[in-house]
Amino acid sequence: MDFSSCAVVKRTNATAHRLREMEFNSSSNSDNAVLYYLLEEWALNPPGMNMKMFLIPPVVCLVAGVLIIPTILFAIFSRFSIRQETRYMLLGNALLADLIYLLFYTLSAALNTAHVPLPKEACVLLLFLLAVAYCGGLFTAAAMVSDTYIAILFPLRYIAIMPPARTKKIIVLLWMYSGAFPGIFFLVLSSTHSFVPCVLEMCSVPVILILTLNGTDAVKLCFWLSTTVIILCLSLIFCCYVILYFKTKQSGIWESICSRASVTFLMHNTVLFFYFFPLLALFIESFFCINVVTRVKTGIWVSLTVCNVLMILPKVLFPFLYGLRYREISASLKSIVRRKHPHPVSPAPSPS
After folding, report:
1. How many helices (H) and strands (E) would you count in the chain?
2. Using CA atoms, how far apart are residues 107 and 125, in angstroms rounded to an integer?
3. How far apart are CA 192 and CA 166, in angstroms?
4. How far is Cα of residue 236 from the mean position of the Cα atoms in its chain?
5. DSSP letter at 203?
6. What pLDDT, on a 0 to 100 scale, did the predictor assign at position 257?
7. 103, 139, 283, 138: which is closest to 209 by C-alpha?
8. Which of 110, 219, 256, 272 lies 20 to 30 Å (CA to CA) from residue 127?
9. Residues 6 or more apart from 105 whose CB is under 8 A from it?
């Protein structure tokens, strides 16, 4: 179905506007055909001003990310000693994945807000790249915490366990898993014909997410498996932080609340919270939506908030609360700034 066909659907649906409004606000519409009908109409005729307001967070976060992430990446890869360390290679990989996610999601949100239609193949490719970038960032964050766990608990064997060559292989494996994991999900969607053409032309991630939650049993199974894997990654990160806290508690680094260890621990857990909370909100909304506890309209607004605000925030907070905490990166950035803005040297006074 091309965009002209979708326009015909839109004009046909306009003849029963009041009836659709009553159905749209009803909580008893459990029939999948009615649900798809309502969601297609939302994608074709969304509320304009409210949708434009939801574009502000992705744009602001993208601008902030474009300003800080390439700077940190340059600081990492411009120095041989820094880019050969495992923690900095993983940090650079995570920042790169977050920047890709910010770019593609802001593009998707802007096209959706501007009502620019996309071919089905282009939308599927955009959604796939978003899923790969999100999984890449999340898997790399889990690898970073695991690396910190190994470095603290096995300091004498750390170099043998995580040499630079092995770290590069791990990064390649992370991207392979990040591509294979959503790839299986998209293959299931394609084989079960769960892509709705009109919705795909608008390429609205929140609407497609609601459709996924109300799709076939195979699609629901893939969604819940994906959610389970993501929650397991976040649980691994949280458990490693808890173990590190109790293992290092006797060393005295936690005595002062303003110590570097305490502040770093707080910042890392803040980022973890912003990663975990949107998934928890999405999980609760998914449960309500599947069991027809909430209205379809409410589900879409919740999905918009989760996708355009809560899932974007960790991507832009990560470089500020995590990347800039490393002394080597901060020192490298300061040296770059000094080279660009040299301090004038006052001439020595002439001897009298």
Report:
1. 17, 0
2. 13
3. 39
4. 18
5. T
6. 64
7. 283
8. 272
9. 58, 130, 205, 307, 312
Averages of pLDDT over runs of 10 residues in the chain (352 residues) are 48 43 44 55 58 86 92 87 88 93 92 81 88 90 85 86 91 93 80 60 74 69 78 81 78 66 71 74 68 65 83 86 78 76 54 50
Q: Using the structure block, give the residue that is written with the tokens 């301090």.
A: 343
Q: Which residue has the tokens 């066909």?
A: 5
The predicted structure's pLDDT at residue 221: 77
Tokens 């969304």: give the residue. 46
In this prediction the pTM is: 0.81
The CA distance from 59 to 216, in Å, is: 34
∠ CA 164-165-171, rounded to 5°: 85
Tell me the C-alpha distance between 11 and 196, whole Å.
18
Q: Assign residue 115 a region: left if phi > 0, alpha if psi is -120 to 50, beta otherwise?
A: left
The DSSP annotation for 235-252 comes to HHHHHHHHHHHHHHGGGT
- In the structure encoding, which two tokens stand for residue 78, read together? 């411009």
Please give the single-letter amino acid code of residue 222: C
Residues 87, 92, 97, 101, CA torsion sign: positive
Rounded Cα distance between 165 and 312, Å, is 32
Rg of the chain over all Cα atoms, to the nearest angstrom: 24
What span, in angstroms and rounded, lies between the C-alpha atoms of 269 and 72?
A: 21
**Residues ≥6 apart with Cβ < 8 Å to 236:** 142, 145, 146
Query: How far is it, in rounded angstroms, from Cα 313 to Cα 325?
Result: 18
Question: Per this entry, what is the length of the chain?
Answer: 352
CA-based torsion, 334, 159, 239, 253: positive or negative: negative
DSSP structure string for 277-336: HHHHHHHHHHHHHHTT-S-HHHHHHHHHHIIIIITTHHHHHHHHHTGGG-HHHHHHHHHH
> Residue 193 — left, alpha, or beta (φ > 0 → left; ψ -120 to 50 → alpha)?
left
